[in-house]
Structure prediction request, 79 residues.
Amino acid sequence: MRIAGSIRVSASIAAVLVTNLVFTASSHAAGSCSSWKATCESRGGASYCDSQYGVCMRSGCWTEGKQFGGKRHCGLSKK
Prediction:
């Protein structure tokens, strides 16, 4: 009984740690307007990237192109 309980607790702790690492990695991957601009340019967005960067610097939000899902990312640092 004790061993099974310990294994269950260890598995729960591991799941929490993995979830935290995934969330931290994704939030740090593109947390600024300039990092989204770089991502956009690497995708070949050119003029779209420049216009989105201006919007992001004013609003703190970046909207991905439709071909990349069109997701809106807000709360970005304006750097």
